[in-house]
Amino acid sequence: MKPGHGEVLLAEGDVEVSEEQDVLAAEFRAQLDSGMWAAVPTTVGGGRREAQLVRSFDEVPRDADRVIFFPQAAGGR
Amino acid sequence: MVLALSVTAIVIVVLLWEVAIPHIERWNERRRARRRVVAGTGMDPGRERRAEQRARALLRSCVNDEEWSMYRDLGFLRIWGRLADGPGQPGRAAEGAPYAYLVYPHKPIVAYLPQTRELLSEHCVQFPDETRPYGSALLPDSDDVLAKWMALTGDERRLITSANMHLPGRQIDPKQIRRDLWRLGQWEQERLRRAARNDGHVAAP
Question: Which of B49, B54, B186, B198 is deepest in the core (most CB within 10 A)?
Answer without folding.
Answer: B54
